[in-house]
């Protein structure tokens, strides 16, 4: 009888040990960071989804995203820093629930400039996925949770949720291409192009008046717009600026010494002689600009 009791105790002890081992094998590694564990779990979910949907998706080793191109354009332009990308997208959870999308039916593509701060307008995962596609291409991007993503952690898209993006890249345009498109659209193709990339077109001439000189204080009326037509600054009464001293952007220093008192001109300029890769609110980074300027006086 005593032997039977001892056997039962031993059997219960072995069962408890086995249960503890099983629980520990299923429990997360206590040394594994939460973000790392969630990303690993996301990877498993994505792989299962790829198999379920029979998607020809491959992992990009640099970004960690999974890409299945549904339309390829081998000769398409690849977006690089400074390029404007126009695109359509639909963002879904892997259970099919749509989280976000561009205005596809209204034919209003979303726009982003590569290398510019996202400013909350586009998720980190979508931004990275866009750079895996060329102009004209379409693709499915599957993305694990990204702790830098600025649009997760809500009721529709809880934190640590993997997502699917269906993306169509409408266009990829360099600054030079954007400027050329603008000149054609505005009928400014006769503008002179200088070595810096400045486009200069005199719209009102006073050939008998004095040329503006470096070092002079010049009173200028002006209006500045982005190439999409949005006005960011204007002065209809005239403001005084010193020319050739760095008090104005390089494009103005270059353009104004081509002008005389009383003359008007339209200039279009790349960001390299404007506000550069950082921009200056409300002017975005890598923004090409257009100005209508009038020299009121120079002294």
From TrEMBL:
Q: Name one Pfam family in it.
A: FKBP_C
User: Which keywords does UniProt give here?
Assistant: Isomerase, Rotamase, Signal
The protein's matches in PROSITE patterns, at most eight in alphabetical order, are given as: FKBP_PPIASE
Q: Which domain of life is it from?
A: Bacteria
| Region forming the signal peptide | 1-27
Give the source species: Larkinella punicea
Q: What is the recorded name of this protein? A: Peptidyl-prolyl cis-trans isomerase
Q: Which reaction does it catalyse?
A: [protein]-peptidylproline (omega=180) = [protein]-peptidylproline (omega=0)
Q: Which family does it belong to?
A: Belongs to the FKBP-type PPIase family.
This enzyme's EC code(s): 5.2.1.8
PPIase FKBP-type domain mapped to chain residues: 82-173, 215-299
Q: Name one GO molecular function term.
A: peptidyl-prolyl cis-trans isomerase activity
